[in-house]
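new request in #modeling-help
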Amino acid sequence: MRTRFTTLAAIGAIAALALAGCSGGGGGGGGSASGGGDGDKPFKVIAFTSGNQTPIGAWWVKAVQAKADEAGWDLTMIQGDFDFQKMNPQVESAIGQGADAIFDGYTDYASISSIVTAAKDAEIPMFAMDSGTEATDAFVLNVTTDQQGIVDSTMGAFDEALGGLKGKNVMVIGHDPHPGIRMRAGLAKEALEKAGANIAGGDIQKVKSPATGRTEALAIVADYLTAHPNGLDAVWVGWDDAALGAAQAITEAGSQAKVTGVDATSEAIAGIQSGGAFLATIEQPWPSILDTLMEAMTAYQKDGTLPKKNFEAVETTLVTSENAADITPSDKLG
Amino acid sequence: MTTTNTQPPPTKVPAQPRTSIGKFLVQGGTTIALIALVLFFFAMRPDVFLSFTNVRNILFQVSILAIIAGAQTVVMVVGDFDLSLAATSSLAGAVAASLMLGGVPTPVAILVALVVGLLIGIANGLLVAYLNLTAFVATLATMTSVIGLAYLVTEGTTLFNLPGDFTTLGQGRFLNIPLPVYIAIAISVILWAVLRFTTTGRKWYAVGGNAEVSRLSGVNVRRGRLLAFAVAGLISAIGGILLAARLGSASAVQGSDNLLFSVAAVFLGMTVIKSGQANLVGTMVGVAIIGVLSNGLNIIGVNSYVQQVVTGLIIIAAVTLSSLKTRER
């Protein structure tokens, strides 16, 4: 009995040592704990996104993998399928095995607080792309697009198409769970009120699910136009898919109202080019944003240099019938 | 004046009449709710709510839900339910769109999409009827896989630029009424007739009522359930194809809210008839409630979050009525 116990204890001790060897020490054992690459081992990066099922998210996964291959990184890519219960523990587990840097794609920091804590505990810097609309100490750098700039551009397009916004009836359609859309919808409402426009329906019309955004927006606009024939001059929508639903409702109702969206998807660009209700959309420069982040991560890999500021909001491009042909649609990036 | 002190004759206390107001409300509650909703929204916006344009709007908005709820009714008649119907409809729309964009003629693409829906329905039926998996587990699993397939077919994007002859199916009009409305009515009438007048329909009801008794009575229970799932898969594919035609595009998750609403419509409909069983007329009343509620609340400008709360409360009320009725029986 005693011999058996000793054998079991020995096996246990060996297994524990083996596991400790595999997982490395502390948070950064698998990578270089001092920050930056250590020269001998490849730079170890954990990349994750919850939005891999969206066209832009899918592009990001492929683009980061390609750039990591090019840079010779040891990349662990975790795809969350919008399921934080599944994704967060996977990322935390990867952090536990050590890394040099973490790269968050399109996942708002509000949804990943446990990952942020694990990264801070392990002293691994997190770089992020479009992962929140405000500066936060969760990231050493988060690069996103300028929400105020998006609103200013789209308002300019309305202003030009409608001959001014004063007294015009404009509906704003948003989606609260998405921080970018929530922020820009709020800014759009403010801008419209400031310009003297009437907010159709009295407040921001909220779509509940991005999956059904198009049908929801279609129903909201169709019902509004039924109740208020000729009661709409424009519809500002926070993203293209719902904007396409709004444009369809306007066309079916025979209204002359104009619609703007954000994202520059192929379908939205085609809608703009067709000369119908879809007036304009916004191109967000994701490839150049990714380049900026890759530069920042490479600088950190080289000598541990961290970015000077932790938040950057870059300019976007208004897409109208004039430049639509020159724009690469966001769903055709990859 | 003489008074006679007479003892009152022994009275037999009559049993409480079973047609009390309470019972009336329980039995007719859902239909009454629909009428009340129509009257309420008409009172709020008399100039708009019952106008031709708005009624057409409501019919257009619920036409695809009506088709998918019809499919759900068939499965619920046999005592099961299908969580994969909305996913199947999305996949069918995506398959049709993908094929058409690849140059396949529209009728062929539609046919293939219908076959896909039928095959998923058959798979569900085999899992439930022959492998004895619970409908919940089987259809949850197929739903998961079918959503994955839809992502594969669409490559995670939205497929658009669909041929004009296809989009006409969803956007065209006859006598100023959108074509999906006619298709929804036609499918509903066919399903109603099958459930009410055919041997198959009666067998389905028998299986849903008591599978063991049906089996002992000579009904092939397994085949009945398989057929119900197959029919549901096929019909949901029609719904998905029409949705793609209506929107002029197809994505992996479009129309996903049809799952919840189709189940809700059938539950609402179960309160319409005395037996408390799933039935097509009742389901259409349920669909009408959901459509009227959504449209009416939009018209009077109620926040969409509040709309969701109200819809949920109405479903709870309907299911409660249904359970009261079942208890009474």
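bot summary: The two ends of chain B are 54 Å apart (CA to CA).
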